[in-house]
Amino acid sequence: MSDPGTATPSVPPGGAVAVSDAVLAKAVREESGRIVATLTASLRNLDLAEESVADAVLEALREWRVHGVPPKPGAWLTQAARHNALDRLRRDAAYRRKLTLLAETPAPGPGVADERLPLLFGCCHPALGPDAQLALTLRAVCGLTTAQIARATLSSEPTVAQRIVRAKRKIGAAGIPLRIPEGDERVPRLDLVLTVVSVMYNEAHLVAGGDAAADRDVADDAIWLARVLAAALPGEAEAHGLLALLLFHHAREAARAVAGELVLLGAQDRSRWDPALLAAARRELDAAARLHRPGRWQLQAAIAACHAEAPTSADTDWLQVLTLYDLLGAQDRSPIVRLNRAVALAEVAGPAVALDDLATVAEPLAGYHLLHAVRADLLRRLGRADEARDADRTALQLTTNEAEQRLLRHRLALEGDARPARGAARH
Amino acid sequence: MKYVIMFTSTPELDAQVPPERAQAVYGAMYQWFADNADKITDNGVELQPASTATSVKYGANGPVVVDGPYSEAREAIGGFTVIDVPDLDAAIALAKSWPGIELPGVAVEVRPAVTDYSQFE
User: Fold this and answer.
1) CB pairs under 8 A between A and B
2) Host H or E run for residue B40
3) Residue A94 domain-assigned?
């Protein structure tokens, strides 16, 4: 490994101290994206910069676990990454030319709120596929290792590694700029970034074969990234909107998973919702509202706020929730929005109306387990028990998440379904 | 950076475009070349329909001549142009402004050209 040079690990007298991986992960997350951004700017080569930082992160995870996190983790990582870049350049034919680039360490230009943002926009460029956007963001901006990304995204390590290599090559070869888009392009491109962050949060919560206890790491990374965006782009209402949405969801985490079992919103013990996180979420939503630029992330956060404000599930202001879904549906025509709207519609207009409405999304969402779970619930409320059981069984077959499977099996058992679920054979 | 932009379309959909509309779009295309002359390094060529193509490929007994384009895709390349712009965003902006893009079945493919041959040294 490379010599981290001037960095001095803070080893307490008496020997090495083990540091919790959470502290390690936090330090890596805070520092690695900045270093990738700075090194990319001086080397003009994202691939080389990113590889050098990724190796430094692996070295840090090894070293810091034993010797503790150094007092200046950023300086340690920067130094290690520069050494790695040098090592790589020595093997490069064009070594001398590029070496001079490394000597110049440009400071972030004036007006750049956060040097990680141009990198983030580059990683989430529409010329890259959604899987590549997510993998590259997790690695280059959040400093996750390939193995961590593979676990969080349910992919094999070689698949993730290949995705990242291809994406970096395309950025270099196709001339994808690392830059915060201006003008008309800003809003749609920011929405792509926010989508990647939202997917990151959801992936951490729906790890197939995993427990309802979410993969804390990547969910925290998503919230951290949403915070970075909202802080660096204070005038972008939707950046605050996404942060508010994620905070509302995170506040419910303790009530959402009880002893590894998934508890649906309506049945959650609301006293277990985190009041500090709820307050922080409301502050973000207020900050967004003051900018008077509504959008789909703010609307989703506003819906989450409606649930947060109801002391019990029965107190939910469903009419307001439905109105918000109508506004959301006008901006986002995805059938998922229509499905979620149907849940509110059932509370306002009754299950029969909602069931009719679901016919409009039956085709696009035929393979989506939650469509069938929602249909089952509506059918049960209409006294159509046989059809409800069929729908629940279809939902069970379609989900790969173990906690969701247990919940559906529990529901089928309550319905007196003695037949073995076909979905159970999948694991 | 140099990019080749390839204009692709679906012949059966092209045939459905009313002649007046096709004429208007064709005029706009001329204007597009004039407006972007500073970014275009080679106007390239417009191709005759794919039905006029002949392919030559290697068979068991040497090169074989076959009627038709090399690919059986529904879409066909109708022409290409070489541009020189700072980055992919600029190339995409130019592709978005191509007048033909509003016709059904039309797409513009943007491909970076190899300009650095050091990798082959």
Assistant:
1) 27
2) strand B40-46
3) yes
Q: How many domains does chain A have?
A: 1
Amino acid present at A380:
R
Yes or no: say if A83 and A90 are a contact pair by the CB < 8 Å rule: no
Q: Which residues contact A251 (CB under 8 A, 6 or more apart)?
A: A273, A274, A275, A277, A278, A281, A308
DSSP annotation of A341: H
Residue A204 covered by a domain: no
Q: Which of A94, A176, A185 lies closest to B88 in CB terms?
A: A176
- CATH homologous superfamily, domain B2-120: Dimeric alpha+beta barrel (3.30.70.1060)
What does DSSP assign to residue B115? Answer: -
- Does residue A363 form part of some domain? no
- Which site among B3, B4, B5, B88 would you substitute to test the A interface, given the most A Cβ atoms closer than 10 Å to its Cβ? B88
Q: Which residues of A touch B87 (CB under 8 A)?
A: 175-177
For chain B, domain boundaries:
2-120
Residue A345 to residue A327: CA distance in whole angstroms: 14
Contact A175 B118 (CB under 8 A): no
Per-residue pLDDT of chain A in tens (427 residues, 90 and over written 9) = 444 444 444 444 434 445 566 777 788 888 899 999 999 988 888 999 999 999 999 898 888 888 888 888 889 999 999 999 988 888 776 666 666 666 655 555 545 568 899 999 999 999 999 999 999 999 999 888 888 888 777 788 999 999 999 999 999 999 999 999 998 999 999 999 999 999 889 877 555 444 444 344 688 889 999 999 999 999 999 999 999 999 999 999 889 877 777 888 888 999 999 999 999 999 999 999 999 999 999 999 999 999 999 999 999 999 999 999 999 999 888 999 999 999 999 999 999 999 999 999 999 999 999 999 999 999 999 999 999 999 999 999 998 777 788 888 888 887 765 454 443 333 3
Encode A196-234: b = buried (16+ Cβ within 10 Å), e = exposed. bbbbbbebbbbbeebbbbbbebbbbbbbbbbbbbbebbe
